[in-house]
Amino acid sequence: xxxxxxxxxxxxxxxxxxxxxxxxxxxxxxxxxxxxxxxxxxxxxxxxxxxxxxxxxxxxxxxxxxxxxxxxxxxxxxxxxxxxxxxxxxxxxxxxxxxxxxxxxxxxxxxxxxxxxxxxxxxxxxxxxxxxxxxxxxxxxxxxxxxxxxxxxxxxxxxxxxxxxxxxxxxxxxxxxxxxxxxxxxxxxxxxxxxxxxxxxxxxxxxxxxxxxxxxxxxxxxxxxx
Length: 226
Known about the structure:
Blueprint: E1 2-5, E2 11-22, E3 25-32, H1 34-52, E4 56-61, E5 67-70, H2 72-78, H3 82-85, H4 99-110, E6 116-124, E7 130-140, E8 147-154, H5 156-225
Antiparallel strand pairs: 1-2, 2-3, 4-5, 4-8, 6-7, 7-8
């Protein structure tokens, strides 16, 4: 493959084959392979992404749901071999989901009503354990090459944190309710104390007025007695 520059300065590539037809003559066959090289490079990049992605990636048939390709992350997390998983369907991993439930998710993609769907479920491993999974499902390809592509995120830790946050939220709400009750009770006690204090002050004032009245009455009586 030989690089060359076009008149406009674009770099492209030739694939040249030469055939010797005489001692000093050759026939050359030149084929521009620039686009082919770009396609191969793109496929290589996509293959590397597929192979090295930390997320699980599954490709499965639109009719039988049988897995066609899965990446290493899928095998590592589920514990199945490539041979085993190619004889399985997504329902073999989603033991808490029925075929009818799964079909309701895929039909909008088949009918082109949606470009993609996201849902949460549980993926069961070969050893019987499971993990919380977020599924990003799409229909890729065209015609006879159509297949489902599922990118699976392990959200077990996220679910654990969300559960802890919910528990903390409930705990805080209960604490707020309790403190609010205590504050209301304290305010009620203060109000009762205030009312009792005011009532006592009024009674004291009443007594003072009665004493003053008695003193005046006594003073008015004493001169007559003399």
